[in-house]
Each structure stands twice: as C-alpha cells, then as structure tokens.
Amino acid sequence: MNPLLQRLQPYPFERLRGLTAGLQPNPDLRPISLGIGEPKHPTPPLVEDALLAALSGLSSYPATAGEPALREAAAGWVQRRYGVLLDPATQVLPVNGSREALFSLGQAVIDGSRSGATVVCPNPFYQVYEGAALLAGAQPAFANSDPTRNFATDWSQIDEATWARTQLLYVCSPGNPTGAVMPLAEWERLFALSDRHGFVIASDECYSEIYFGDQAPLGSLQAAQRLGRSDFRRLVAFTSLSKRSNVPGMRSGFVAGDAQVLKQYLLYRTYHGSAMNPAVQRASIAAWNDEAHVQANRALYKRKFEQVTPLLSEVLDVALPDAGFYLWAGVPGGDDVDYTLKLLAQYNVAVLPGSFLARNAHGANPGAGRIRMALVAGVEECLEAAHRIHQFTKEYRSS
Fold first, then answer.
1. Entry pTM
2. Separation of alpha carbons 396 and 79, rounded Å
3. Intrachain domains 3-42+293-398 and 45-290 with the same fold
4. Which CATH number fits domain 3-42+293-398: 3.30.1850.10, 3.40.50.720, 3.40.630.30, 3.90.1150.10?
5. Are 155 and 143 in contact (CB under 8 A)?
6. Cα–Cα distance between 331 and 353 in angstroms, integer?
7. What tens digit of pLDDT does each residue of 224-249 get?
8. Is residue 160 within 8 Å of 200, Cβ to Cβ?
9. What is the average per-residue pLDDT within 269-290?
10. Which residues share a beta bridge with 139?
C-alpha cells in the first residue's frame, strides 16, 4: 500500500463518532444534528426534471471535458455573477463536486519529488486540503485565523522561507467554518506572493451564494480581473452546485481560471476517470441557468440566521458570519470537546468541536474552545436546536 496513506488523520466526523461511541443521548428529545454541512433544503424541481429527462444519455460515455453546453452554462453564470468573461473551451472544466476537484488538483499540481514541497492552508480548514498535500508527497503548512479580525486568515504567520517552498495554496472564501470573506487587498497580497514564488492558488468558493447582506462575496476571478490579472495566471477557482442548489448527492461543480493549469489538469483527469454523468450534466445546465431557486434558498438561510443567531449570542460568543451556513461559536470554559459531549448527552443536539477542524500551529489550535454549527435543516428544527443549546449553555455555565 501507498505508505503516504499512513500520514492521513481521521476525518472530523470519524473522530466524533469514535468519541461518542457508547454515549446515550437523552431519549426524551428527538435527535437534531448541526454537525455535518449537508444541505437539507429541497432540491429544485427544475433540476430533478432535467435529470429525469436526460436518462437516455446514460448509454454513452461522457467526455472528461464535459459537454460544450455545460461549460458554456458555467461560463455564463460566472459572467452574470462576477462580471468575468471566460473562454468555455479553455478556462472552464466540469468536476464531480468541489471536494473531488480540490483533492485531485493537488495530485496534478504538486511535485512531491522536490525537496521541501509545501502546501499552505488556512487553519481551521477543510481537511481535504491536508489530505491532498500529504498524498502528493508534500508537507502542509498552516496559517491560523485571527479572532480579532472576524476570523480572517493571518497569512503573515507563513514566513518567506516557507512561501519559497510552496507549490500550492488553498484558500476558502467564504470560509469553512468561520464564514469570513477575503477582501480585495488580501487577494492582492496573495497574488503578489504567487508571482514571487510561482505557486498555484486553489480558491474554494462553494459557499459563495449563501450570504446575508446586499453585497455578494467577492470571488477570486473577480478579484484577479479588478487587479488587472485577466489571464488568471496560477489561479483556479472551485465552485459547486451542492450548497447553491441543494443537490449534494448530484456531485457537480466546475473549476475555472488559468488555461495552462487547466490544460494539464484535464490531462490528469482523462486518466483519473472523472468524467461527469451525462444526465448530471444536463441537470447541471438547468441549475446554472436559473437564479430564482438560488434567491429563494438564500432567503431561507437568512430567515434562519436572523432567528437563531440573536438567541445563541445571549449565551455563546457568536455573531452573524460574512457568509456560508455555519455559526462559529466560542463555548464557556473553552473546552469544545467536553461541551459537545455533554450537549449531545443531555439535549440530543450534535455539533462539531472546533478543535477537530484545525491543527496545532504557531503555538495554538485556532479551533479550540469553539464549535461549528451547520444551520442546514429547516427553520423550525434549527430554532428548536438553538433553544436547547441556549438552555444547556446556561446550565453548563453554572455546573
């Protein structure tokens, strides 16, 4: 077996399952899970109808590059959303969800034979970034979030020697789990570092369509264009229909950006066997071409957060995030694992310990003392969970 597999750490949900094995939650309360970021809103009928209408396409092998109509639909969405014009033939590539692509891009980009090969990640982070680095033979380096700056990543924690060894930088905006959105000045800084050291930037933007104000989050391609980088050199943006259109089981998204990087990545994918199902392609076209269901979805999240956040802020260190569907909350006493276990046992509400989503770096685990709550269920269920957490936290403080 590949010895690099031994370097992988258990996934956060695996760790939580092991931690709660044998624990008996309160049987008088129905279970509510805020632990996994899996959208629970209904899938739009237009997507289901398109999927069913395209089943005859299953008799043909799909092309790895995807149908031209799908690439055009993706490029059209980017133009409407960000004002960025892409060449569908060379700057857009369909992928089977952002998770698959975030991992596989690392395998295509990273040269593990180079001494000191490094991948820089935010901390806390989506664990696929670390796994991609390790299995490509690179070493991850972490930049912690800064709670004094709305949990923005503090890239200054990475020294010049580490940047010089860096081959790939993962960024996530809006961030998982913090919800922080990167401003233009931060992009300008990262682009300058990429120019100086030659690394590729992989921008994970799967939460971009869930936000609460009037201003949509800035995207990486949009930032590059504003800064005069219309060739998107060494930049690949990742987006997905899972959160935007409530179709996590469909596994559909696309990557866009530097045509030279995508040309090599397509070569990798032809061997990787990652062509998208033809019926999924047709359903994806329908989803990218419609905004009404996205607006309705965003309004539902806004309604949930408007009700849940003020209630939880009475007992936890929590505030409305910039975007995304997570609340990143500090717990009394600072022991996120103890808090999580007792909440589940006493009130049958599952959350995820923040320390499971981060690594010890620069003398601290930036997730310690916090929990991540995914407000993905319906309004009433999320509100019931919030009332239970509110009551539990008052008892927990006094215990």
1. 0.97
2. 50
3. no
4. 3.90.1150.10
5. yes
6. 10
7. 999 999 999 999 999 999 999 999 99
8. no
9. 96
10. 118
Q: What is the pLDDT of residues 103-132, one digit of tens each?
A: 999 999 999 999 999 999 999 999 999 999
Q: Name which of 226, 229, 120, 142 is nearest 183 in CA terms.
A: 226
- 147 pairs with which residues across the strands? none
pLDDT tens track for 43-85: 999 999 999 999 998 999 999 999 999 999 999 999 999 999 9
> Which tokens hold the place of 108?
């295509």
What pLDDT is stored for residue 399 in this prediction?
Answer: 85
Strand segments (E) across the chain: 32-33, 92-95, 118-123, 139-146, 152-153, 166-172, 200-204, 235-240, 253-257, 326-330, 349-350, 352-353, 370-374
Residues 262-278 pLDDT 10s: 999 999 999 998 999 99
Please tell me the distance from the alpha carbon of residue 105 to that of residue 203, in angstroms, as a whole number.
11
Cis preceding linkage at 44, omega within 30:
no
Query: What residue segments make up the domains of the chain, in order of their start?
Result: 3-42+293-398, 45-290
Nearest CA among 174, 257, 180 for reference residue 222: 257
Closest by Cα among 103, 378, 44 to 255: 103
* Fold of the domain spanning 45-290: Aspartate Aminotransferase; domain 2 (3.40.640)
Task: Using alpha carbons only, give the angle 26, 12, 377 rounded to the nearest 5 degrees.
Answer: 55
Indicate the pairing of strand 200-204 with strand 235-240: parallel
Please give the structure tokens belonging to residue 24. 């008996």
**What count of Cα atoms within 13 Å lies in the side-chain half-sphere of residue 240?**
24
- CA–CA separation, 54 and 279 (whole Å): 5
Percent pLDDT > 70 in the chain is 100
Mean pLDDT, the chain, integer:
97
- How is residue 144 annotated by DSSP? E
Question: For the segment 354-378, what is each residue's pLDDT rounded down to a tens digit?
Answer: 999 999 999 999 999 999 999 999 9
- Whose tokens are 């892409």? That residue is 86
- Alpha-carbon distances of 232 from 3, 138, 222, 355, rounded to whole Å: 35, 24, 10, 34
